[in-house]
Every structure is written in structure tokens, then in C-alpha cells.
């Protein structure tokens, strides 16, 4: 489906670009969020008449986002959570938790502005990317700890506060995970080699040749 982008979309294009996207992506995200509109002749003409105004509004929002980003340099938020062996959380920290913590600290950040592919599931310091505007991003640190005191120590040391037993458990878990990843890579490589260079087919002449060799040896 062809759509006209109403703002810059990462990996797609800039405002005003006409791009071809999957219908589901357009119907479920771009169109409802008003980030794009269908590339009909009427919409193309409408966009061109409003281009100057849209660009002016975008520039104003970008400037506001840049001002907020400047204030959020080196921002760190503390999230107190219960955790078990090796610092594994009983639960997780998701985008809503991040936005709520930032809002509580005086920064208005929507959940959709938190660029978090997977939830946080371990104690420690985690860098979180915030998209304040399609062209403005800033990174904050989520300090996940069992208490405010532990969060302070983590901030000073730059790593998760774990006991020696937990450190060993985490190291063992990471080693097992690394070994599993390595084994998977070896299997994928072996499968690729097998597919690219399968064993040569045996022709009808080869058995006769083998029999002749056996007769010579006899």
C-alpha cells in the first residue's frame, strides 16, 4: 500500500515521502496514529497545500523536543524491584514502568516514546532510548535495584549489586547461554554447508568400477 508520510519514520522516509508499506502496518499503525495517509490523488494535493504549515509545526515540535532532551542528559531513574538468584527480577520492567518513573521525576514521557524491544528482567543499570520526536532521541538510565540504598551503590559502581553467590550464578547462567548460542551457530553452519555441498550422487558406472578394482586386488 502506498502512503504519504506525515512525519519522519525511521527506516521508511521523511515527511512528504510516498512509500510502499505492508497493508497491515499501514492500517494498524501508520494511519490510526496519523503518521501517514493513503497516497490518493486527493490526499497528495491536500498534502502539498498544507506542506508549509506541517513543516512549521514539525519544526516547532522538534525544537521543543530538543529542549527537553537537553534537560534529560544524564538522567537516571530508580526502579525498586524484588529479585532472586543471579539478580533475576520477580517480574519485569516494561515501557510503562519507565514512562511512569520519568513522569514521577518531572519529565512527561509517553509509553510509546520508550524504545524498549524487550522488558528488563535483571537488576543493574540499563540504558533506555527515548524517542521524544521522530528526529530527536535521548538515552536515560534505568537503575533497577532491590532498594534505594542498593540503587545508590549500583550508580557509584556502575554494575548490579550482587552477592558472591549471585555473581557466580549469573556468570554460570551467562556461560550456559553463550554455549547454547555457540552450539546453535555451529548447527546452522553445518546445515548451511550440507545444503550448499551435498554428497555427490553415485552414478550407475561407479559400482562397476568398484567391482573391477576388487577383481584386480584379488
Question: Can you walk through the features of this model?
Answer:
A hairpin with a 2-residue loop joins strand 8 and strand 9. The chain folds into 2 domains: 69 residues, 3-Layer(aba) Sandwich (Ribosomal Protein L9, domain 1); 91 residues, Ribosomal protein L9, C-terminal domain (Ribosomal Protein L9, domain 2), CATH 3.10.430. The chain is α+β, with helices and mostly antiparallel strands. Helix content is 48%, strand content 21%. A 4-stranded mixed sheet has the order 4-9-8-6. The protein has a 3-stranded antiparallel sheet with strand order 2-1-3, covered by helices on one side.
Keywords for this entry:
alpha+beta; Ribosomal Protein L9, domain 1; 3-stranded antiparallel sheet; 6 helices; Ribosomal Protein L9, domain 2; 218 residues
Give the helices and strands, then pairings.
Blueprint: E1 2-5, E2 18-20, H1 23-30, E3 36-38, H2 41-71, E4 76-80, E5 88-93, H3 95-104, E6 114-115, E7 120-122, E8 124-133, E9 136-145, H4 148-157, H5 164-196, H6 205-217
Parallel strand pairs: 4-9
Antiparallel strand pairs: 1-2, 1-3, 5-7, 6-8, 8-9
Amino acid at each position: 500500500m502506498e502512503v504519504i508520510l506525515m512525519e519522519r519514520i525511521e527506516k521508511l522516509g521523511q515527511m512528504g515521502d510516498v512509500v510502499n508499506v505492508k497493508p497491515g502496518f499501514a492500517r494498524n499503525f501508520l494511519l490510526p496514529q496519523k503518521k501517514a495517509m493513503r497516497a490518493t490523488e486527493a490526499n497528495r494535493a491536500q498534502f502539498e497545500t498544507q506542506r508549509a504549515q506541517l513543516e512549521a509545526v514539525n519544526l516547532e515540535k522538534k525544537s521543543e523536543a530538543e529542549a527537553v532532551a537537553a534537560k534529560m542528559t544524564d538522567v537516571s531513574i530508580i526502579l525498586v524491584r524484588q529479585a532472586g538468584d543471579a539478580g533475576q527480577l520477580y517480574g519485569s520492567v516494561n515501557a510503562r514502568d519507565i514512562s511512569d518513573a520519568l513522569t514521577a521525576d518531572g519529565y512527561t514521557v509517553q509509553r510509546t516514546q520508550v524504545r524498549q524491544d524487550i522488558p528488563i528482567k535483571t537488576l543493574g543499570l540499563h540504558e533506555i532510548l527515548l524517542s521524544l520526536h521522530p528526529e530527536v532521541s535521548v538515552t536515560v538510565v534505568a537503575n533497577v535495584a532491590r532498594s534505594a540504598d542498593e540503587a545508590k551503590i549500583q550508580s557509584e559502581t556502575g554494575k548490579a549489586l550482587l552477592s558472591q553467590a549471585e555473581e557466580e550464578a549469573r556468570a554460570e547462567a551467562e556461560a550456559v547461554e553463550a554455549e547454547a548460542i555457540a552450539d546453535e551457530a555451529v548447527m546452522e553452519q553445518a546445515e548451511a554447508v550440507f545444503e550448499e555441498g551435498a554428497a555427490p550422487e553415485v552414478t550407475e558406472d561407479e559400482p562397476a568400477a568398484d567391482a573391477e578394482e576388487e577383481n584386480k586386488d584379488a
